[in-house]
């Protein structure tokens, strides 16, 4: 019999669901599964493409050892450690607008506007440099980047009233113009010697470009320094005809160690002296009338001062006749009431073997006979419209300030200096002031100045004809003026605020900024009223002696308060240290001074210069090196006749004849140093 199999071939199905309806019901799960599978495949492909795109974007945003993100960037050294971190505070980059071509990574937008941004990598042997530029396209918008500084010790920037080594940042400061300032009268400002350069212990350096309207701020809570460019509420100006679109551009360079990266930066980006000043200034002290007599100087006192120098057996590079030998400020003729026969006075000094330099400045007071002449001839810096001369206030009154961008003003000033040299045989000049804080907040000059500190540079150029013995206290891109630079006046106190303890950090800072011919101000300080440690009008005796000992190991020495104002013991100590300076220090310094012309390397060096791997060396602010082979450790505390001394690894012989052959750094605790001694060690 045949068995009927339902749904079989040729068979007949009775009492069953129709075939088409059955198939629909059975196929539904399969379709759903297929759709889900397709969705999963698409999702997987999308995820894979996104992953590949992310990898490509991540690779795009890396350039050598720098990683860029929307909020900033980090830089690593060759070992892979993070050595530099910068955040963007003026916008968030739109990373989709970024592209990379060769060594240049560029972006065209932030999250809300267009801009021009790029980072270019430059590799030079063992040094990796990054050129960074953020340019706004909208006028008056500031650009601000924030550098984290707590991963290392930082040096450089500017002379300050309270000077530490390394830089010590406290409090919060909104970005303010990074321009030269007289920090004696404005103790919160940046100093008269200033450069846009910083160096860190992890072998990183940053140099801000000259074109930037640069402002500097900080926050010690966040451990950041703010680098800002702006054209509003500032003395910076765009070039004539240009829109005030801010640009922050700089280069960050990373090397193998702090010494080598500093050498690299100096050789490429700093001006260098083209000659060494007079050797006599390195060998013999300068004697100034200022701290002793202030403005109460006259012919009789000057001749007596010179006679006492010879009487007590001291050498003299030159006498410095300071403020005030003229009747009014802005004049160049001697005040006949105070100097009745200047010609005879100069002849007498010349016969006795003295050269004389004169104090001068860029101001012409309104009561000077020359004020009207300068107004008529347009020789002054002017108010913003350029129609009227600007009146400025300085420590000796009110007047005009000469516009050293104006060739006629330069010639007028220079002709008076030449006349003094021709008439009296003046050897040189002490050019005081020159800082931009003596300019009006808004001003105009014959040649427009984008950067107010360029005024300082133009003023320092007036010293070039006299740079054998000239003295300047302000400098900006002025290393090639090739004369001695002096830190701002010191108070006759022990501390870090313009006192004895500030001297080494200040000299080290100025040296790092490329100024190597340093005159460390007057021994004992300036003896200003209410700013002097001591029971009399003289600086404290112990302070004076310790200052004298330290100055003997600087490139040049300068007396004003003479040692015979104290007693015979102080006179003998002064003779001892002027002799040490001439016989031990000056020969080394002069040799190094010759090398400066080629290398720009410091004469006075920090201890880390020869101990780049030693964390302790980065923090020492009371010792220094002359070259690589003479280490000096003065006593800087009152009442002390001992001190702790750090000796880098090596072979050293102390001034007492002790020998130290050490493979590791050595700490000498409570090393005895008598009042008439300064500890120093020579590399054997």
TrEMBL record:
Any one of the GO BP annotations: skeletal muscle fiber development
Assigned keywords, A-Z: Endoplasmic reticulum, Glycoprotein, Glycosidase, Hydrolase, Membrane, Nucleus, Signal-anchor, Transmembrane, Transmembrane helix
Subunit structure: Interacts with IGF2; this interaction is required for IGF2 secretion.
One matching Pfam family: Glyco_hydro_31_3rd
Entry GO terms, CC: endoplasmic reticulum membrane; nuclear membrane
Annotated organism of origin: Salvelinus namaycush (Lake trout)
Name of this chain's protein: Myogenesis-regulating glycosidase
Gene name as annotated: LOC120065296
Residues in Glycoside hydrolase family 31 TIM barrel domain copies: 296-438, 500-580
């Amino acid at each position: 019999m045949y068995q009927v199999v339902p749904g079989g071939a040729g068979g007949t199905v009775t009492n069953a669901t129709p075939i088409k309806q059955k198939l629909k019901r059975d196929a539904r799960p399969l379709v759903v599964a297929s759709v889900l599978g397709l969705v999963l495949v698409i999702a997987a492909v999308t995820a894979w493409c996104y992953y590949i795109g992310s990898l490509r974007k991540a690779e795009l945003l890396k350039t050598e050892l720098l990683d860029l993100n929307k909020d900033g960037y980090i830089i690593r050294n060759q070992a892979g450690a993070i050595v530099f971190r910068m955040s963007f505070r003026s916008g968030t980059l739109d990373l989709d607008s970024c592209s990379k071509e060769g060594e240049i990574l560029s972006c065209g937008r932030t999250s809300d506007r267009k801009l021009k941004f790029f980072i270019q990598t430059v590799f030079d042997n063992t040094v990796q440099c990054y050129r960074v530029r953020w340019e706004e396209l909208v006028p008056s918008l500031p650009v601000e980047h924030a550098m984290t500084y707590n991963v290392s010790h930082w040096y450089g920037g500017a002379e300050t009233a309270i000077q530490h080594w390394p830089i010590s940042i406290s409090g919060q400061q909104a970005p303010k113009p990074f321009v030269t300032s007289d920090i004696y009268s404005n103790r919160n400002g940046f100093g008269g010697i200033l450069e846009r350069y910083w160096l860190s212990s992890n072998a990183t350096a940053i140099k801000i470009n000259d074109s930037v309207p640069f402002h500097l701020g900080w926050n010690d809570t966040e451990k950041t320094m703010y680098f800002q460019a702006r054209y509003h509420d500032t003395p910076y100006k765009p070039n004539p005809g240009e829109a005030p679109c801010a640009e922050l551009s700089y280069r960050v360079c990373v090397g193998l160690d702090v010494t080598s990266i500093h050498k690299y930066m100096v050789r490429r980006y700093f001006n260098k002296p083209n000659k060494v000043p007079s050797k006599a200034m390195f060998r013999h002290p300068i004697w100034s009338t200022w701290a002793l007599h202030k403005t109460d100087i006259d012919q009789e006192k000057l001749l007596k001062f010179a006679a006492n120098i010879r009487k007590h057996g001291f050498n003299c590079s030159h006498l410095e006749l300071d403020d005030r030998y003229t009747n009014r400020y802005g004049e160049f003729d001697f005040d006949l009431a105070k100097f009745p026969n200047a010609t005879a006075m100069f002849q007498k000094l010349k016969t006795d073997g003295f050269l004389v330099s004169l104090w001068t400045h860029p101001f012409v007071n309104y009561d000077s006979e020359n004020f009207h002449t300068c107004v008529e001839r347009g020789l002054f810096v002017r108010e913003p419209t350029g129609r009227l001369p600007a009146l400025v206030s300085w420590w000796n009154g009110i007047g005009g300030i000469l516009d050293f961008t104006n060739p006629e003003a330069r010639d007028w000033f220079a002709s008076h200096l030449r006349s003094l040299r021709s008439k009296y045989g003046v050897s040189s000049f002490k050019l005081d002031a020159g800082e931009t804080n003596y300019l009006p907040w808004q001003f105009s000059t014959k040649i427009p100045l984008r950067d107010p500190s360029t005024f300082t540079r133009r003023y320092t150029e007036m010293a070039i004809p006299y740079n054998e013995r000239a003295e300047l206290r302000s400098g900006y891109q002025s290393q090639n003026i090739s004369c001695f630079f002096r830190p701002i006046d010191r108070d006759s106190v022990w501390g870090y605020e313009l006192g004895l303890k500030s001297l080494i950090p200040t000299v080290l800072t100025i040296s790092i900024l490329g100024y190597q011919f340093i005159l460390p101000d007057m021994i004992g300080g300036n003896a200003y009223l209410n700013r002097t440690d001591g029971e009399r009008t003289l600086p404290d005796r112990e302070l004076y002696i310790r200052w004298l000992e330290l100055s003997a190991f600087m490139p040049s020495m300068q007396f004003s308060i003479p040692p015979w104002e104290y007693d015979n013991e102080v006179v003998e100590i002064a003779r001892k240290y002027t002799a040490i300076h001439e016989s031990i220090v000056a020969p080394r310094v002069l040799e190094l001074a010759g090398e400066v012309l080629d290398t720009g390397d410091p004469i006075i060096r920090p201890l880390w210069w020869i101990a780049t791997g030693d964390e302790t060396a980065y923090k020492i602010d009371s010792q220094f090196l002359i070259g690589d082979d003479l280490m000096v450790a003065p006593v800087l505390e009152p009442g002390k006749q001992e001190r702790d001394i750090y000796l880098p690894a090596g072979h050293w012989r102390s001034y007492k004849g002790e020998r130290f052959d050490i493979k590791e750094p050595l700490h000498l605790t409570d090393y005895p140093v008598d009042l008439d001694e300064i500890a120093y060690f020579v590399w054997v």
